[in-house]
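Request: Have a read of the protein record below and say how the chain folds.
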Amino acid sequence: MIHRPPAEPGMREEDIDTPALVLDLDAFEANLDTMAGFLAPTGAKLRAHAKTHKSPVVALQQMRRGAIGQCVQKVAEAEALAWGGVPDILVSNEVVSPAKLARLVALSGIARVALCADDAAGVALAEQAAEAAGTRLNMLVEIDAGAGRCGVSPGPEAVALAQRIAASPHLTFGGLQAYHGSAQHQRKPEQRAATIAGAVEQTRRTVEQLRQQGLSCGIVGGAGTGTFRHEAASGVFTEIQAGSYAFMDADYAANEDAPPFRHALFVLAQVMSVSRPGLAVLDAGHKAVPTDSGFPRVWQRPGLRYAGASDEHGTLRIEGGTAPKLGEKLRLVPGHCDPTVDRYDWYVGVRGGRVECLWPVAARGGMQ
């Protein structure tokens, strides 16, 4: 069920009903421009990750600024984007359910779609789905670039899987997926640089071994908001899959040499109790703001610290500055933007203290 929006265009920010997902449009647009400007001279293209924003509106704004398409992690996200007019979508993940594969190939009539594989059995399942639909599906080989999650080993194993894909009359070998997720939040810049240098070298060797077998990589994709500068400069990666850069959460801001983006995504919360000295309680707890990457930060209110959460309550400790008043509304910077967005039906876009637009989070809850 999609709930009614918490605001209307023209409304003052302080009149937005809470909790609400607020997008600072000036900061958001600046982030899109910053990424586009950075990538332009490198030759690497942006395939922004929609698992962060879950919105065809955001996706199309990214594409107007040079992004060539979008990544998703789930077929339901691919559907929401394709139905919303996004023309080029990569499922940067494995899909092995026949029902999900049938849904994915059904999208090929309205969008260019691709997915990843790290196992010959998975390739066979995708092949069957494409054959049944009478279409040809683009497929990338995912290699384990060091994160220890999904992915076949770089080198000969990846080459063998690529050859299996290329030999199919119903599949097209599209290249490599080489994302190193755990590197994104390594705090020290030198640690991130060293980790990605290893991933780049493994990827480079695999691309060369594929070339020796007559297979070219149309796509070599990976990177995220924490490391995109390294992959873009490598000369190996052709596509950058950053997502959080558009919003910039507190966890990325905690990296040393943090990514050069502004905080644009906030949860607007209201002070609902000031009954205890030194404390205030907000109407935004676990159901409003995830805490997997730590508690949110109170935006531009020094001395206020979000110190605890229960289902519907967030506790602020007043450690200095001006104490908040009953009914006052505060912006919170979430620790992790992806699961924060997934809690809401609407973005409330604000500019200059006024609500400018409302955008549905079209792929919210798209777990299938």
The two ends are 17 Å apart (CA to CA). The first helix runs from residue 25 to 39. Residues 86 and 262 are 25 Å apart (CA to CA). The chain has a mean pLDDT of 97.
